[in-house]
Design the sequence.
């Protein structure tokens, strides 16, 4: 089910915390330091077009990934722990930098009908979709986030999908014992 007031956002998530928006210059400096230390660099938005990037950070603020948005859409897929099949939450970035769940997709109907318990009937996805079925979230329970806390575990296989970029297997990039990561939208100067 989608979260209501006082309920943690998103399956497998912890409570959402507000994080300050950071400027890309700070991110570029961090990546330069990490790259100099022999750490694998991640894609960082640069360019100064006033757009947005989807970022994934640890609770301490360490950058895991940052991908510039070419549109207002992105998705996070995961392996559902109950049904053990893949599902995906699809988001739209709002003008104020928050993001809203606009579609849920899954390989198995039960994930949409039972796990999410949405009121609308799922439908077959388009032939070029990553998942087999899609459905809109419950309009009576809008899911709008400033920051989304998710658990990036080996079991859940959380993966970030941003159009125009290769998928980012977030779960493979978490190297601490705490699998919590914070998904956010940050401005690109």
Sequence:
């Amino acid at each position: 089910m989608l979260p209501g007031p006082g309920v943690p956002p998103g399956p497998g998530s912890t409570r959402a915390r507000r994080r300050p928006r950071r400027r890309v210059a700070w991110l570029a400096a961090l990546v330069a330091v990490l790259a100099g230390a022999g750490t694998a660099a991640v894609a960082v938005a640069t360019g100064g077009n006033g757009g947005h990037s989807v970022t994934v950070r640890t609770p301490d603020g360490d950058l895991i990934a940052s991908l510039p948005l070419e549109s207002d859409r992105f998705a996070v897929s995961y392996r559902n722990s109950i049904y053990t099949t893949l599902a995906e939450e699809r988001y739209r970035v709002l003008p104020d930098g928050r993001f809203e769940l606009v579609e849920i997709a899954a390989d198995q109907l039960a994930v949409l009908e039972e796990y999410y318990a949405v009121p609308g009937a799922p439908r077959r996805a388009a032939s070029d979709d990553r998942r087999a079925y899609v459905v809109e979230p419950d309009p009576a329970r809008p899911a709008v986030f400033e920051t989304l806390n998710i658990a990036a575990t080996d079991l859940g296989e959380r993966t970030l999908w941003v159009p125009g970029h290769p998928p980012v297997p977030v779960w493979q990039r978490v190297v601490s014992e705490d699998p919590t990561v914070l998904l956010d939208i940050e401005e690109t100067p």
Notes: Residues 24-187 form one domain. Residues 24-36 form the longest helix (13 residues). The mean pLDDT is 79. The helical segments are 24-36, 109-115, 170-173.
